[in-house]
Amino acid sequence: MRFRLTPRETSFYDMFAASADNIVTGSKLLMELLGADASARAEIAERMRAAEHAGDDATHAIFHQLNSSFITPFDREDIYSLASSLDDIMDFMEEAVDLVVLYQIEELPKGVEQQIEVLARAAELTAEAMPHLRTMENLTEYWIEVNRLENQADQIHRKLLAHLFNGKYDAIEVLKLKQIVDVLEEAADAFEHVANTVETIAVKES
Question: Which residues cross the membrane (predicted)?
């Protein structure tokens, strides 16, 4: 890693770690949603909404720190990109849960549990990776694995779409379920954006 003569603001590391930990909380709520009956989903959605608000607060704190810091640990645009992509993940997960409740979905199609399992694994990897931003060490396996998971998520998403359009569901139900699985796919894409940003930062800092 490049040697620096100037001090750097280090609180960003803690804030990124906190944001990623909150995403793990969101992924656990998604997992909880899978096993919940319709009557319990509204309460899960409330907790997810609270987690999403906590994510917003974490993102705003990073932006405030960015705007008030003369020296940053790495490029400002990369800090902004990383914080925004982490925030996007929470937004998509919260949207998926909210749609399940608003659309009064009785049963999610087979394959959604695989989507959520991928997101949960990506959340764990992201939370584990954030503390390594301090040293930029032991991050290569993280972004490789998250990219692999995103490819897996793409395959699951395509199979889900094929299932939705096989004639089993009526047209309105297809539209509802497709929107949910599409949002979960966007969450997987956002995890990849985070990993790609971390890779960019690591390359610049090497």
Answer: none
> Does 133 fall in a domain?
yes
Domain that holds residue 190: 12-205
Number of Cβ within a 10 Å radius of residue 15: 20
What CATH number is given to the structural domain containing 191? Answer: 1.20.58.220
Residue type, 143: W
Residue 1 within any structural domain of the chain:
no
Residue 22 sits at the vertex; the CA angle it makes with 158 and 56, to the nearest 5 degrees, is: 90
Summarised one tens digit per residue, pLDDT across range 67-99 is 988 888 889 999 999 999 999 999 999 999 999
Residues in the chain: 206
Q: How far apart are CA 77 and CA 3, in angstroms?
A: 21
What is the rounded CA–CA span in Å between residue 23 and residue 12? 17
Residue type, 92: F
